[in-house]
Each structure stands twice: as structure tokens, then as C-alpha cells.
Amino acid sequence: MIGEKIKSVRMEKGITAKDLAEKAEVTPGYISQIERNLISPSLSVLMRIAEAIDIPLVSLFSQEEQEQVTVIPKDNRTKIQFADINMEYQFVTPYSRSKNACTQMEMLCFKLGPKSWGSTMVQYHEEAAECTLVLKGTLEYHIGDDVYVLKEGDSIYVPQQTYHQLYNPTDEDVEAVAVISPALY
Prior knowledge:
Elements: H1 2-12, H2 17-24, H3 28-35, H4 43-52, E1 78-81, E2 87-91, E3 106-112, E4 116-117, E5 129-136, E6 138-143, E7 146-151, E8 155-158, E9 165-168, E10 174-181
Antiparallel strand pairs: 1-2, 2-3, 3-10, 4-9, 5-8, 5-10, 6-7, 6-9
């Protein structure tokens, strides 16, 4: 469970619950509830926690360490659905918390619900670029004052250090594949 992983890594790194709460901008009681799996935190809180304990976000969802050649059957992908956004991620590449495997890139499939933003926050990757291919629907990338409209079969490359947000302007789900390099989550 996510809470157990947060507590394990926090303790491994010698970080107190109080220090983690301060860094993640939540209360110590909230951290305690998360670690005991009593509540499900939002994506933005999980991102702040992962940053505070210096681990990729996806490590909170991974089941086991992966090394070398790995086959991930479609039904065994790590899936993430957040309550605060209308988006589902499915990780196509494996993840290793120890960062000894698959750190060169990360590939994920995602669905973005109708009339929804991909995140409540503007995305910015200091050292990671991303490329997205739309498989179904229409997806908007908002970058600065520009809006790039992608339809089925279109792709976009977003270089590192570029502020951006995704939006589905239609009444149907968007399905897409994204590659992030180096691995971010």
C-alpha cells in the first residue's frame, strides 16, 4: 500500500513524520493517516511527498523491483487513478525504486476524461523531455500562451524545462501514449 511505502522510505532515510509534513506542506496528522492507509491523498500531495523523500512518484505504486529484460502483460500494468483529476495512468515500462533499472525512459498509456485537465498543476520537468502520441480523441497541450491541438495519430515533443498542461476539450475520453526521458516518476 502507498502509505506503507511512504513510511518505509521515510524511515529508511531518517526523516521524521513532522519534517515530511513540513516539506510536503501538510500536517503531521495527515502524514500519519496516509501512512496508516486511512486516507487517499491527492496527486499534488503525493507529488510533494515523493519530492520531499527524494523518490520518483511511481515508486509509491510499484509492486516489486525490476531488473534487466522485463515483459509486462497488459493486465499487469501499474495503474494509477487519482481522485483530484479525471485521468488514469498505466505504466508500460517497469520501475525500480533503487534506480538500477529503466531510468533512461518511462512510457505510459493514459486516459483523460471529457472536458478535463490532466493535472491541477502546471507541469514542469527540469531534466526530462516528453513525447506524446494521441491514439484516440483530441488533446490540447497548453504551453505558455500557445495551445497545440492534437488529434488521433498526432504527436508532440515537449523539451525539458517547458511549462505545460494537458486538456481534453471534447465530450469523449482521450487515449494517448507518452514517453518521458529520463524517467521522472
